[in-house]
Amino acid sequence: MGFLQAILMGIVQGLSEFLPISSSAHLVFTSNFYKVFKGIEIVQTSNEEVFFDIMVHLGTLIAVLIFFRKDVIKILKAMLAALKTKDWSNNEAKLGLFIALGTILTILIAYPLNEIAEKLVYSPVIVGILLFVTGFTLLYSEYKSKKIETKKSEVNLKSSIFIGIAQGLAALPGFSRSGWTIATGLFFGLDRVTAARYSFLLSIPIILGASMVYPLVKIDISEAVQYNWTAIIAGTITSGVVGYLCIKYFMKFISKFSLALFGYYCLIMGIVTAIFFSIYS
Description:
By secondary structure, the chain is an all-alpha fold.
């Protein structure tokens, strides 16, 4: 893991984690494009690369925590109050329960897919195809959303269940986590801002859990000391800074414009990368 590669991938992660274009897919593409131009075999595996992927996700987690800090504090306070009074009628308390439920469903779906997801890191052609599917999903969700006259500004039990499942499926590189969760919200009649806000809040427990559990379970300490920690830390900081700016401007964008732009981007990027890596891998 070189320093320049780490900075580049940090920028890519920060931009693509919150945009509905699949950060995991873009990390796969960036890493493998780098290998192609450096003459390194794509099949070459590296625990350092997988660990770096977790770390740059941690960077974007910090970004979303800072941006939505007021929301997070409100939800936690409301849940603590509800636990004492046993009254869960408060909207923020219910939102906290929905996030907890969505997180559980995400884990149930994502855990069995974890081994497949790790192998797909070295199969950019398949990831490109999955990104194409994400593009189609975004466009179709916008089509369905336009047919719903009255948009909802609050998540309910049914929508939280399906959004949690969607986030679980997004464990596969190419299935955008934010894209699939926001699109699912639109399918259930949420307005774009509400769907995006819930998507970002729902990402917090999962990214936090992955960034804590993975190093404890899979990282060999004797191997980890050999990692290029300067590059890893630089990439993590970069992803956090870029991620914060991305959230800020994406929330403004989505309040006025549709996801169609990102849908078309995923379609084109998916096709182009699938063709490229089918030729050069």
